[in-house]
Amino acid sequence: VIASITNANSLETATAEMNGGSVTTNQVGANGVYALNTGKGAAKAKLTGGAIETFGASARGLFSNVSNVGSNATSSATMEGGSITTKGGRGDAIYAANSGSGAAEAFFHDGSIETNGDAAYGIYVSNTGTGDATATMTGGDLSTKGEASMAVLASIGNVASSATAMASMEDGTITTIKRGSHGLHVTSKSGSGDSVAKLSGADSTITTSGYDSDGLFTFIGGAATTGTSEITMDAGKIALNGDISTGLNARTEGLGDATVTMNGGTITTRGTSVFNRADRADGILAYINNTGDTG
Q1: Rounded alpha-carbon distances, angstroms, from residue 106 to 126, 154, 189
Q2: 59-68, 211-220, 254-263, 283-292 — which is least confidently predicted?
Q3: pLDDT value at residue 274
Q4: Is 48 left (phi over 0), alpha (psi -120 to 50) or beta?
Q5: Using an 8 Å Cβ cutoff, are 242 and 271 in contact?
Q6: Three-class HEC string of 209-249
Q7: Residue 281: per-residue pLDDT
Q8: d(CA 114, CA 108)
Q9: In this structure, are residues 250 and 259 in contact, taking their beta carbons and an 8 Å threshold?
Q10: What percent of the chain has pLDDT over 70?
Q11: Contact assessment for residue 75 and residue 106, using Cβ atoms and an 8 Å cutoff
Q12: Could you give the C-alpha distances from 45 to 24, 32, 160, 209, in angstroms and in order?
């Protein structure tokens, strides 16, 4: 299912929506539902029902993409029901990408997501332009089974950006089983933008079982960056079964703050620690890795 606009001057919206039935793809890069806009308008991909299954590498389930660097429109991918299963490496279930100045947004409200390949994220929001990157989960079941397969990843990759990368979970269940597979992962290389992760809702549950697989992890890269790496947990449950895994881990290489606030909920760690490393098997960790910062 593909909707594409290829006129660089178009201001219209590319919308791809699936409400039922089934889609199966087998080739590399063969997406299930794909909205692409190379013009100046928005891209919207939506799943409300039905089943999507992809087998190829880099074959996403639900994918929205604004690829024009001159666009200020939004790229949004929304899942309200149904199921997405991906088998290949880098086969993200939900992926929203933006190269312009507009936002990249992904919403997971209900349904089931399963990824099986390595580096295959459940929800992936990437902004390489100057807009925000926001991933929101309010329900549903999400599991990843490969290595380095984050359940939810929000990323800003432009050092000239001042935008915010954010991931939030208000309800639902997240499970990851392999090494380096965090629950909520937010990363930014922007000059002054923040990396923010939030967990709320009494029924929110995150379980990780792999080595070095945190519950919530925020990161800001670059020694000259000034943004804040920030985590807030108001409710919910985090269970960590792997070694060197932290419940709430806020980290920055820059000049800004690293802040973790826990107001409620529970964190359980069962792995072992390595005490000559910063990223031990801790419940809560705020870490600044910049020798020039006096904050």
Answers
A1: 10, 9, 20
A2: 283-292
A3: 38
A4: alpha
A5: yes
A6: CCCCCCCEEEEECCCCCCCCEEEEECCCEEEECCCCCCCEE
A7: 58
A8: 13
A9: yes
A10: 94
A11: no
A12: 17, 10, 28, 31
Contact 196, 184 (CB under 8 A): no
Lookup: tokens for 65: 């993409």
Dist CA 90 CA 116 (whole Å): 9
CA–CA gap between residue 194 and residue 154 (Å, rounded)? 11
Supply 24's token pair: 């199966």
Q: Is the pLDDT score of 27 beyond 80? A: yes
Distance, in Å, from the CA atom of 231 to the CA atom of 284, rounded to the nearest integer, reads 10
The CA distance from 25 to 12, in Å, is: 28
Token pair in block for residue 126: 């990437």
Q: Cα separation of 191 and 3, whole Å?
A: 34
Query: Using an 8 Å Cβ cutoff, are 106 and 61 in contact?
Result: no
Q: Which two tokens stand for residue 237?
A: 């449950």
- Report whether 16 contacts 44 (CB < 8 A): yes
